[in-house]
Amino acid sequence: MTPRRTLGPALALLVALSGVARADESVRAVGAIGFTVSDLDAALRFYTEVLDLEPQGEIVEIANPDAERLQGVFGLRMRVARLALGSESIELTEYLAPRGRAFPEDTRGNDRWFQHVAIVVRDMQRAYARLREHRVEHASSGPQRLPDWNPAAGGIEAFYFRDPDGHFLELIQFPPGKGDPRWQVPGRALFLGIDHTAIVVADTEASLAFYRDALGLRIAGASENHGTEQEHLNNVFGARLRITALRAPRGPGIELLEYLAPRTGRPRPPDARANDVLHWQTDLVTPQADAVAVQVHAGGGSWISPGPVALERAPLGFPRGMLVADPDGHVLRVRETR
Known about the structure:
By secondary structure, the protein is an alpha+beta fold.
């Protein structure tokens, strides 16, 4: 992770004069969930043909100093594609230059660079059969139904798998009465949308100081999960997790996964960069990037960009933004919209 950058006096003064002191007044939504891929064309085939995501617009190719400052990667040339599933979207980025490192083959479910998106399905058995038809790599031993003794999670069916680069993904089916009511609306689509992105954290309280207290996301639910179903879902023997679901006013949730056991997960590599294939970035949509930048430091996070970056011609769909990191190194992209 890029070392923490100190808050410049000009930016601090700008925020003070603007009267914007609370990020919970300015973080309006969680937006696209993005990650780096080694081959954009291959990734597009996987996500459109296997998981039924739909392209949004054309592939954009970017190589300019503004993008270098935003991503913290000098001399970059990248191709970016946006895909939609229901009301949510993901963003895939291939770095033509400089090429980053491949996804670590020995990644475990409790390592603190772990992140996934949870794709809601109408019928778990049909969705699992679709993945088997395409010979998708398992991360769980098979779909798991979480036990009824757990009131927050009982009846939910879930399955972890991996994309061609090794990124973790989840299928999730909610029983009636759990999850967003829109997941129960009748229809024909098999893959419905993205409920949340999940990240492994070292300390839930430290993460809440960042996401809840500094950035203003609200707690939408919490549980402590363990047992054979959870072990087989995460493929971590003896897994016992503290799970905290967070929400902004709009968009998918951010789910904190703290492994109470086993506490053997490795930290994110300190030299990881946006062109490495383990890189994920989750969008926070705001009209006040300066205010969010201040709150990142207040909550124990750090900057990857040198500060909010103006993007000439807005090639990524927003005029100003920055990359920041939470206390565990998970990356967020602050997108300023007017």
